[in-house]
Amino acid sequence: MKITIVYDNETTKPDLKSDWGFSCFIENKKNILFDTGANDDILLSNMEVLGIEPKNIDIVFLSHNHWDHVGGLDSLLSMNPKIKVYKPDFSLKPKEFLPGFMTTGILSGIEQSLMIKTGKGLVVIGGCSHPGLENILDVARKFGEIHAVIGGFHGFDKFDALKDINLVIPCHCTQYKKEICELYPENCSSCGAGKIVEI
Ligand SMILES: [Zn+2]
Ligand SMILES: [Zn+2]
């Protein structure tokens, strides 16, 4: 499985744009775009540089309805009306919506996170983690061991919750990126548009 960060507050290459927001592209049995950033021009420009074509997206998974995560959706749908959108509906419970792909369901009435089963364990991807990353990880652990967690962690500071996770990539709105990577130097990796993670 390949995960490419498409939209982030930081960037890894000068030809990619950084902006407040988040999106990443997951290539597995299906191609899933997780969130769509804030601005459609920036999303599409970064996708083009990264060789990701709208026609190759099967599913858009939206973590929550904040502007910095849903901004590119309408443009993507106009370019590829076949994209299936998994929206954060209020009644959503944890479930496997495709073989190997699960949602945590809506936590704290605001946000769902994506869980992907891999041979190494679960990969958890979050948008802003408004329900508290520690609470999201608690839900995910009911489905298996967590191998990796990627996304915006917001004000998360219960750092102990990360201690058994092999790969931690704090992105987007994470307030304590520096502290997390100092605490887990071997497992933590920096984020940014253009970053590629192979699992
Ligand atoms: Zn948010
Ligand atoms: Zn956000």
Summarize the structure in words:
The structure is a single chain. By secondary structure, the chain is α/β, with parallel strands linked by helices. It has a single domain (2-198), classed as Ribonuclease Z/Hydroxyacylglutathione hydrolase-like (Metallo-beta-lactamase, Chain A, 4-Layer Sandwich), CATH 3.60.15. It has helices at residues 40-49, 67-70, 73-79, 133-141, 177-183; strands at residues 2-7, 23-27, 31-34, 59-61, 84-86, 95-98, 101-103, 114-118, 121-126, 146-152, 167-171, 196-198. It has a 6-stranded mixed sheet. It has a 6-stranded mixed sheet with strand order 6-7-8-9-10-11. β6 and β7 form a beta hairpin. The longest helix has 10 residues, at 40-49. The mean pLDDT is 97. The structure holds zinc ion (2 copies). One zinc ion is lined by residues 22, 66, 68-69, 127-128, 152, 172-173.
